[in-house]
């Protein structure tokens, strides 16, 4: 865990949002967002997407590990999305951007960029040299964001368990 403080973000199209560290009491709301967004895009548990992860209901425990952190976006008192990073197994100096999901209420408001920057900053502070991610072509908006933030397409690294994610990307930090 880090000592990062909540980040307030506003935009002309929305009320203030807060990016803050995931807490245990956020687990159920975050899992619900991930399941809802996954269903919306047809990312079903039987196909190897992160919605199938057995740890989905206890993510606050997962991100207690060293070199890991997860942030949520709170909007109008509700958890409406989030993203995190963790070390990529068997790849020294590489972290993985993980479980980046956002409810419809905050999409297109700049929050994905803000939370990804939070993840990048943390990764740099932790001494990672690269940030890796896996995604799918179905998530067109996410692909555009990753490219704008300097991620480039690469070969798959390691065994993440998300074999349905056909696109791998990496960014030098």
TrEMBL record:
The family database entries (Pfam families) matched by this protein are listed as: Acetyltransf_1
Q: Which organism is it from?
A: Shewanella polaris
CDD domains reported in the protein's UniProt record: NAT_SF
Protein name from the UniProt record: GNAT family N-acetyltransferase
Q: Does the keyword Nucleotidyltransferase apply?
A: no
List, for all copies, the residue spans of the domain called N-acetyltransferase: 17-173
Highest taxon listed in the record's lineage: Bacteria
Per UniProt, the keywords (alphabetical) are:
Transferase
One example GO MF annotation: N-acetyltransferase activity
The answer to whether the entry has keyword Transferase is yes
Q: Which SUPFAM superfamilies match?
A: Acyl-CoA N-acyltransferases (Nat)
């Amino acid at each position: 865990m880090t000592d990062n403080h909540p980040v307030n973000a506003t935009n002309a199209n929305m009320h203030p949002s807060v990016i803050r560290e995931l807490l245990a009491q956020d687990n159920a709301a975050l899992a619900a967002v991930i399941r809802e967004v996954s269903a919306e895009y047809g990312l079903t548990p039987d196909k190897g997407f992160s919605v199938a992860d057995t740890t989905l209901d206890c993510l606050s425990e997962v991100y207690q590990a060293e070199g890991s952190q997860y942030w949520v976006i709170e909007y109008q008192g509700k958890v409406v999305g989030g993203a995190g990073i963790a070390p990529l197994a068997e790849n020294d100096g590489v972290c993985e951007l993980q479980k980046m999901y956002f409810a419809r209420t905050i999409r297109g408001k700049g929050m994905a960029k803000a939370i990804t920057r939070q993840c990048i900053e943390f990764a740099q502070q932790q001494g990672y040299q690269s940030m890796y991610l896996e995604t799918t072509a179905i998530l067109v908006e996410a692909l555009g964001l990753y490219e704008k933030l300097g991620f480039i397409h690469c070969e798959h690294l390691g065994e993440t368990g998300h074999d349905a994610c056909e696109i791998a990307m990496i960014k030098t930090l």
